[in-house]
Amino acid sequence: MTIDTGTLWFVIIALGIGSFALRFAFTGFVGDREMPAWLLRHLRYTAVAILPALVAPQVLWPAATGGQLDPARMAAAAVTLAVGIMTKNVLGAIIAGAATLYGMLWLLN
Amino acid sequence: MAITTTKSAYRKGLVDAAPFILVIIPFSSLFGILATEAGLSVFETLAFSVVVIAGAAQFTALQLMQEHAPTAIVLASALAVNLRMAMYSASLTPYIGAAPLWQRALAAYLTVDQSYVCSMAQYEKQPDMTIPQRMSYFFGCVTPIVPLWYLFTLVGAVVGAQIPESWALDFALPITFLAMIAPMFRTPAHVVAAIVASVAALLTASVPYSLGLILAGMAGMMAGARTEVWLERRAGVAP
Question: Which end of chain B is more exposed for a tag (fewer CB within 10 A), N or C?
């Protein structure tokens, strides 16, 4: 069960260096050098691709319900997205989403 | 409200990233609790969060170490979970690549999901920001996030108390991310990228080491880029 102290520190330091390398890979080594147009075209969609991909499984199969579909969480996600797209107001979308989540959780339980 | 000075950029970043506090506190205190339960000392637990600052990768490494997986596997798996950081780095480069090296190094250490999405949303919304304004904004976004990441790792490790599950703070992360992304859907290509990436993420959910996320992200980026080219061509052909 217990984790060996030497192994632990090796993992902490190696993971720290590795994570920094991943984060520094482009901002650090490419810097202000011109990147090819095709690459820039793909990079324009990084945020709108990765973050929805990160969120989608958590919306459909939330860990909190043991991976079961949860109407409250699905509704909250849909409302957040809809309000965000319509109003372009981040805080408004968060509040609308949270209100939906708590409202639905209260109604359903 | 448009940013006009580096100081106002810092303040705006700080305010814009504030909702993420709801995500950071439960997530980091949970790490503190699980790490001390796994036998780590308070100092080791805090060091883990300070050196690595990457929630999902930390949880992965911790779990694999508890299962006595070989160290190479622990590192490879946790870094795979963190692979998206390289994609964030690449997409930040056109915006902050010209900043001084020390600032880029500091920003690299501080690149997490929240600081990335917050900054990108602002950079895209206001393309005429200067490099110093962009860096100030980035560091503003980091201010309500990273110190709390350290602090609540410590609180979790020392106090060991969890926020009750009935508060449903597990869903603070999807809600804050969706709210940040929604205003970024400026063109049909952005929408296509998000839909393709989401569907791909669901289809690849069983791929180990979070590599499904990378595949899904790449699929979404390619779909967005293809759509952009196609839309441009169509606009070019039209009278």
Answer: C
Residue contact B181–A3, C-beta within 8 A: no
Q: Which of B6, B5, B50, B47 is nearest to B139 (CA)?
A: B6
B204 shares a domain with B117: no
CA dist B36 and B158 (Å) reads: 8
Residue A36 within any structural domain of the chain: no
The model's pLDDT over A29-72, given as tens digits with 9 standing for 90+, comes to 999 898 999 999 999 999 999 999 999 999 999 988 888 899 99
- For the record, the structure tokens of B200 come out as 């791909």
Report pLDDT for B238.
56
Distance CA A96, CA B9 (A): 26
**Cα of A91 to nearest chain B Cα, Å:** 7
Q: What is the pTM of this model?
A: 0.89
* Domain match, B50 and B90 both: yes
Does some domain include residue A77?
yes
Alpha carbons A93 and B121: distance in angstroms, whole number: 15
Distance from CA of B239 to the nearest CA of A (A): 25
Domain that holds residue B105: 6-172
At which residue do the structure tokens 């609308």 appear? A96
Q: In terms of domains, do B195 and B103 share one?
A: no
Mean pLDDT value across residues B193-204: 96
Q: Give the ipTM of the model, two decimals please.
A: 0.91
**Domain ends where: B172, B193, B218?**
B172
Contacts of B183 in chain A (CB under 8 A): 84-85, 88-90
CB–CB contacts below 8 A, A to B:
284
